[in-house]
Amino acid sequence: MNSVLESILKRRSVRSYEPKPIPKNILETIIEAGNQVPSAMNSQPWRFVVIEDKATKKKFDDILNLVEI
Description:
By secondary structure, the protein is mostly helical. Helices cover 46% and strands 0% of the residues.
């Protein structure tokens, strides 16, 4: 089985997180992978924001909880 298919089949949801920060090199790798995702006509309409400050995360959480999806 190829490694991509194996990764997809073994994926899982994580609902509890460790309080330690993610190393910057790992964040950069994740963002770079996201940048490589195909988009229509290579428009790449996405933006990535990394918020590490706890107070700012709380503000965003509060705002997003007000938005109905």
